[in-house]
Amino acid sequence: MNDRNRPRRSNLAVPGSSVKMLEKAKGLAADQVFMDLEDAVAPMAKADARKNIVAALNEGGYENKIRAVRVNDWTTEWTFTDVLEIVGGAGANLDCIMLPKVQTAEQIVALDLLLTQLEKSNGFEVGRIGIEAQIENAMGLINVDAIAAASPRVESIIFGPADFMASINMKSLVVGEQPPGYDTGDAYHYILMRILMAARAFDKHAIDGPYLAIKDLEGYRRVAGRSAALGFDGKWVLHPDQIAAANEIFSPRQEDYDEAEMILDAYDYATSSAGGAKGAVMLGDSMIDEASRKMALVVAAKGRAAGMNRTTTFTPPTPTTPKAGA
Ligand code: GLV
Ligand code: MG
């Protein structure tokens, strides 16, 4: 069975039509690579792109990354053949199918059933291939809870800002930036939070989509920083330069990771009999309790998954022995 919780800080998009980019992706430090058959591939190039992807997956070189393929959405004529050819041709070397423009739970169930058929007929472990669901329009967003809950195969819920902006008639052509005229708050806040709630309620990853101005690394960092601050697990990267930024922004800062591990150790000690079986204690200038432990666990888990090392250690206070005769 897949580890559905492997880090997905950076999700590298690679057009399936480019053999060169499929090759280049192998050496890049992204947590996930997704090979595209959808919007980055022209209709006439889709059949060849399927073949390129099957060949690339079988050739290997992506084993330290999550390997996903984005098929075309269920309203097109390509979805069935996409899944058939990719899973039939390279199912053993594939971790997830990404389904774009998901609108209903039934669309996830349909993909789940098709995957089960293909796993059975090819002799693969049933249920191993995961699903990543892209939310890209209003219908998808209002059904996002049911979409997240539709199958145990669902690993992540992904915001697709470009299609989403188009689908709700947002007055902007710049993905990720605030629409001109909207001079208060963040126009994406509701959408991001809605996706995050569904992901957290059903224990899925929440992933932010692309930032298209690939030369503007500062802009990427700003937009990624917002979804990371809310609690998202990662973001798409369209260019190798965005990878290091995503890996950094979706990992805890070193001082936060150290602090989280410290809280866990200190609270563990405080609640033990050696520490006096206390439920609330001081750590430095702050009080910590069970809720602090839960918050620390989130940060520590992300840091551990990212392979971080702590730079501090917790030393329990030396017990004071009462002096004889005192
Ligand atoms: C990604 O697919 C997007 O539409 O933003
Ligand atoms: Mg899209």
Enumerate the spans where pLDDT stays under 50 for 5 or more consecutive residues: none
CATH H level, superfamily name of the largest domain: Phosphoenolpyruvate-binding domains
CATH class of the largest domain: Alpha Beta
Specify the overall morphology: globular
Instruction: Summarize the biggest pleated sheet.
Output: 8 strands, parallel, barrel
Instruction: Provide the spatial order of strands within the biggest beta sheet.
Output: 1-2-3-4-5-6-7-8
Radius of gyration from the alpha-carbon trace, in angstroms: 23 Å
- Kindly report the average pLDDT value: 94
Helix content: 40-55%
Termini separation: 62 Å
The CATH architecture term of the largest domain is Alpha-Beta Barrel
Question: Any overview of this molecule?
Answer:
- The protein has helices spanning 19-25, 46-59, 79-90, 105-122, 138-142, 144-149, 161-167, 189-201, 217-230, 240-249, 254-271, 290-305, and strands spanning 10-15, 32-36, 66-70, 96-99, 130-135, 154-159, 205-208, 234-237, 281-283, 286-288.
- The longest helix has 18 residues, at 105-122.
- The protein has 2 domains: 10-249, Phosphoenolpyruvate-binding domains (TIM Barrel), CATH 3.20.20; 254-305.
- The radius of gyration is 23 Å and the shape is globular.
- Helix 2 (46-59) packs parallel to helix 3 (79-90), helix 3 (79-90) runs parallel beside helix 4 and helix 11 (254-271) crosses helix 12.
- The strands form 2 sheets. An 8-stranded parallel barrel has the order 1-2-3-4-5-6-7-8, surrounded by 6 helices. Strands 9-10 form a two-stranded antiparallel sheet.
- The chain contains 12 helices and 10 strands.
- Helices cover 43% and strands 14% of the residues.
- With 326 residues, it is α/β, with parallel strands linked by helices.
- The mean pLDDT is 94.
- It binds glyoxylic acid and magnesium ion (MG).
- Glyoxylic acid is lined by residues 100, 134, 136, 160-163, 209-210.
- Magnesium ion (MG) binds next to helix 7.
